[in-house]
Please model this.
Amino acid sequence: MVGKSAIKPSNRKIYLYLLPGLAIYAFVVLIPLLMAVRYSFYDWSGGPNLTFVGVDNFRELLRDQVFWTSFGNNVFIIIMSVIGQVGIAFFISVLLTRSWVKFKQFHRTVLFIPTVLAAVIIGFLWSMVYNQNYGLLNFVLKAVGLEGWVLPWLDDPDIVMGAVTIPLIWQFIGFYMIIFMAAMQNIPDELYEAAEIDGASSWKQTLYITLPMLKNTFKVAIMLCIAGNMKVFDHIFVMTGGGPGNSSTVMAQYAYDVSFERFELGYGSAVSIGMLVLSLLLIGISQWIGRRGEE
Amino acid sequence: MRAFAWIGKSTLNTLLFIFSLSAIFPIVWMIYSSFKTQSEFTLNILSLPSEWNFSNYVEAFKIGQLHNYFFNSVYISFISVFLIIFLAFIIGYMLARFAFPGRTIIYVLFLFGMLIPIHGLLVPIFIEFRSTGLLNQPYTLILPYVAFGLPIAIFLFETFIKQIPKEIEEAAIMDGCSTFQIIFKVIFPMAGPVIATATILSFLYAWNEFPFALVLIQSPELRTLPVGLTNFNGQYTVNYPQMMAAMSVTVLPVLIVYLAFYKKIIKGMTAGAVKG
Model:
């Protein structure tokens, strides 16, 4: 205990040490959060004229078709990602524990590469894949004789959401794979050995040991999927800009459009608040369901 | 039965191999296509370049001002990373070692920063920066990059420092070291691996960041690579090989860092994920 008091500086000194980091953090994260709340009650196009409108912005937000369409698109991406990213990543991580799978190190290294690249790069790359006339996808489809499948992938409102979701899923499969692989290493070998003695096949072991042991990892992965996909912006901005029309608009893209294309900064703030609230709500609900499942 | 199992295994092996290839093929395609001329590319978008021609790169730098974006990205990433590590190490140390009034609040505030979708702050930060004259400055982007990079670095450091026995610091106190000296002369050198992890993660974040760079910077000469790329797209709408050259320049440092520090990146990202 003597040692503890010996190395502990006074509280004042501790605060002084914390100050620079806290100040930057407060300036960039906390103050803007409060400002967003304030401006969401104003009608403001960025000029000197601010008109207090009370909760009108939020009333408009509740009735705003485009906002809810974009929220729906975020939810669509989340559902597809939970199935695609978490599902595929789990399957691949299981495969990589099997002795008969070849080139394990290669798979691990390569599958993770897209995760470290800039979302903008992924967006541009895939718009080159999807381009109607010069795109890789249509080129390959023509080459293998599937002319009927050649489509304007990013210009057809009916298929654009599917098209923009694939790169999002593709980019982060490696990320979830790594999370699952790390968690699988923590499962005690004895469990598998006991199952082995009982004559359980390796797929049975996956189903009855790996899957239940990874329950918490699945929860974390699904929460990350929700949090990550509520803020999707870069990919969509680059690939479609939210178009055609508003068919692929997501919430962050809509907040951007309202604030920087239409210069409605008051309403843009309300959209941002709406986005923050909905995100925290979804994350909260997913945690609540996770906890209830435990009881 | 054995033959059946063999077929199943071979099929899965093949499928997995194809899947892995699909994860890198677009990137490989981008890199080799950047050496093709525009006409060669339109003729056959899949073929390898008939000869390695660097004209796309030369033009990207000459006409596209790529070196400018590159310099800005390097400068902003380096300063941001330095500040993140420096500030996060102090905060991580204080949180790991001492109980003081407000410790829990500070801890939760940073945890909160890892949870909220920061894109929701795009508009309010723009408003704040505009009213304080911080828009469009050479140092503008450093502020958000440091703020958003702090939480993960703090938690990596805090977790690590907690495991270090206190005796070493007590000995240093006896030798007359100040708190600042203890942090940076005693603890910092012991935290090499976790500092490397935090450095790489912060670098990747700052280098790849797009929305804030898009909104907070208006002058072309202050832009970073990700936003600079969108410029290429506008200027040369269908010149894919040229665009690919610019993209390759953007990707190259990241690929080098990744291949050199593969294990550290993966470790850091899983640690961050589980904490969040």
Q: What stands out?
A: Chain A touches chain B through 92 residues (CB under 8 Å). The first helix of chain A runs from residue 2 to 7. Chain A has a mean pLDDT of 87. Chain A has two domains: 2-39, 65-294.
